[in-house]
Each structure stands twice: as structure tokens, then as C-alpha cells.
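new request in #modeling-help
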Amino acid sequence: MSHSTNASSSSASPSAQLDFSRLAPYGWDDDWAAAYADAVADARTAAPDPLPGRVVRVDRGQCDLVTPAGTLRADTEFVVPRDPMKVVCTGDWAVVDADGAPPYVRTLLPRRTAFARSTSSKRSEGQVLAANVDHALIAVSLGAELDLGRIERFLSLAWSSGASPVLVLTKADLVPDTATLAHLTADAETSAPGVQVLPVSAETGEGVDVLAAVLAGGTTALLGQSGAGKSTLANALLGRSAQTVQTIRDRDGKGRHTTTTRNLLPLPAAGGGGTLIDTPGLRGVGLWEAEEGLGQAFAEIEELAARCRFHDCAHDAEPGCAVLAAVEDGTLPERRLVSYRKLLRENVRLAARTDARLRAEQRQVFKQRQALGRHMMERKRGPRRKP
Ligand SMILES: Nc1nc2c(ncn2[C@@H]2O[C@H](COP(=O)(O)OP(=O)(O)OP(=O)(O)O)[C@@H](O)[C@H]2O)c(=O)[nH]1
Ligand SMILES: [Zn+2]
């Protein structure tokens, strides 16, 4: 590294005071250090004055990163590829070139996980909401009737990201008695095989410490419908009410959420540490390449399916279908099978839309190549004479 040793420099030069312990609360570990060293050693991504940093906030063309030199605002234009899935996103670890004015993000370190969703627009493309998430914290309110289908949808999405889902049933204080709470928790567990289900109340503090311990050390992304209690839970976990999540609430009473920025915040060391990413309320969340996640969200169905007589069994009316047999004998709630089918169908539709988009893009590239080919031919032949 070529850090300036100019002691007289009183400016906030990024290389002035490097303190790698600044990265520790943000999850810096030996593996990230190794990935960073690789990126810096690579001629394609080397930078004159490189620093590692974690993206804590993204704006148009710029982002804030926590680095050993403190928090830097850096340009991201050098790493804006055509693929929207590779755009700099909250939670990314990056190599920052501190030599630039302003500093700029040189490259992203390979992501461990990526939280993506399909945009709700007609143009079907993925949008990365958060990178390097360990725990996908799905908040579902006990203040309303449990929507198991919605839970399954969130779980599929969470599993697809590579993060481990944790299901929190918020507003537990609104449930009148413990028997009802136990019943609701059991219902949620049926829809979340292999997932920890925790009732919590930000109001009374019930379950918050247990949750903090589950999330300790890792990066957590908070997901859930608008009004599920995410911000309130984030405040409880962060241990302060001065929420740095910038939410501009709609005052017209429609409750449209207009969260404009995403933030990554360190959790208190006393609770075990870790970081929290608060994304805008995921309304009408879509599936994005969630087929793998579906398999995990419906793990017990996949297990049964392995025992069907036909390997391509659609669990419709086939003889020797282990899934239908389980529905028949009551070991698999029929609702689970219906929900699984619905999400599978949805995913297939989405995949088809993506394919259509890719085909259109390929046509575009082909047309450009044709045009370029014509251009090159003309150059070889010289400008065409006007008759
Ligand atoms: N009784 C009770 N109410 C809660 C609890 N947590 C949140 N609430 C209330 O639920 C409402 C929604 O909470 P928020 O934290 O704003 O929900 P959100 O998920 O962040 O909503 P969006 O920002 O729209 O995505 C607020 O009126 C909170 O006061 C809780 O533990 N108990
Ligand atoms: Zn079957």
C-alpha cells in the first residue's frame, strides 16, 4: 500500500489514520481479509491506494462505506455493470480506491449471499436488496391473522438468498393468552420446517434478548410486510430510539411506505454484536430464481417426493405418489401442498418472463453486431460513392 506519511497533512485524508479495528463490528474476518488481498493483488482490480470497506448505504452513483480510515463517501460508477444483480448494494464488501477525489469503489469482493427480488415492474429483472446477509429475519405480526402462505413466500425468498431464515412473530403482547401463543407458534412452525420461530414483543421486550443472541455476530436483514413491526423491532435490537433508518412516512393515511435508503447498522456488542440491514418494507414480494429456496421452504414435501413411484411425479393423481399419500393420512397438511404448487407456478411464470427479456437482449446484441459488421465492411471497401 502506498499510504501517505505526510505528517503535516491536516486534511481528513483517507489514508491518514488507518484503524482496522473499525471494521470488526461490521463483520470483517480472515476470509474477507483474504478476498480483499486477492482483489488487491489482481492486476485487473488493483488500485493505487486501496482500502477495504463495507457498504452501509447506497445512493445514486455513490455509497457510504466503513473503512479503516473511517466512513467514506465513494463513487460507484466504475462498478456499475449492465447486470442489475451486480450493482453495488448495502452489505457489499468492496475495494475502495482512496486515492481518487472523490474516492471510488474499485471492485466488489465476491458475495457470500445476495438477497434479491423480482421488481414488480413489467420488465422482469432482479434487484439486489442486500448482500452478505447471514440471517434473513422475517417479521410477521401476531396482531393480525397469520398468513401462512405469505410466510412460505418470504421463506422461499430467504432460502434462495443463501441466508438462513429466522421467523419472528412480532407483537406477541397482543395475543391474549399463552395457550393461543403456543398454538400460533406451532402453526407457523408447520410452515417453516428447519427454521427457528421466535415470538417477540418490542412492547414488553419479550424474546428480544433471545433474538439478539440468535443474530449475534452475523449480518441480519429485516424483511416483512409493511406494519409488521420491523422498525420497532430494529429499535429494540439496536437499543436506542434514534433510528437511523430514514423512513419518510406518507401522511395521507394510506400508509404507503417510502423508505428511500437502506442502512447497515452495527448491533450493540453487549447483545453479541452483528449488523442489521433494514430494507424497505417488502410489499408484494416476488420470487426471483427462488426454485432452490422453494425446495428448502417445503423441505418435507421434497423429501416425500423422493419416495414417489415416478421421479417426475407431479403429485396430482399419479399412482404411488408419496406426497398425496401423506396428505391422505394427515401427515402433510393439504394447505402446504396447495401453497407449494402455487409458488412453483409463480416461479415458472417469472422464469419465462426473464427468458423473454434475455431473448430480447440477445436480439439487440445480434442487431448491433450486424450493424458493426456492415460498418466494418464499408470501411474496408471505403465510403460508398454516391451515384
Ligand atoms: N402492541 C405492539 N405493537 C407494536 C409492536 N411492535 C410494533 N408495533 C406497532 O405496529 C405498528 C407498525 O410498526 P412498525 O415498526 O412501524 O412496522 P414496520 O414493519 O416497520 O412498517 P413499515 O415501515 O411500513 O414497513 C406501529 O404502530 C407500532 O407501534 C409490539 O411489539 N407490540
Ligand atoms: Zn408424487
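bot summary: The first strand starts at residue 50 and ends at 59.
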